[in-house]
Design a protein that fits this description.
By secondary structure, this protein is mainly alpha-helical. It is built from three helices and two strands; from the N terminus they run αααββ. Helix 1 crosses helix 2. 1% of the residues are buried.
């Protein structure tokens, strides 16, 4: 697959990136280079290789899943510059 200038311009527009017309050929070349790397990865034989998350086998640390009521509202609201009726008070931003 090859990326032409029109496709590069469309990708830039979809990504909301402004690209000058004189920079489009370089962008298309970069896209083509990336696609070449992806094609190379597709050629690798991964038959029998298990997917992994890390290069070293390790188990993630987990905490016990215990239900608590929290009961920290007063401590949390003590840091707020303005709190009313048990909630953070913020300035009105929509008329």
């Amino acid at each position: 697959m090859s990326i032409d200038l029109q496709t590069a311009a469309r990708v830039a527009k979809l990504a909301r990136i402004r690209v000058d017309d004189d920079a489009l050929p370089a962008l298309a070349d970069e896209f083509n280079t990336i696609l070449g790397f992806i094609e190379q990865l597709g050629e690798v034989d991964v038959e029998g290789v298990e997917p992994m998350v890390s290069v070293t086998p390790m188990r993630l640390k987990r905490r016990a899943d215990e239900v608590t009521d929290g009961d920290r509202q007063r401590a949390i609201l003590s840091n707020a510059p303005d709190a009313r009726e048990g909630f953070f008070a913020v300035p009105k931003v929509v008329e």
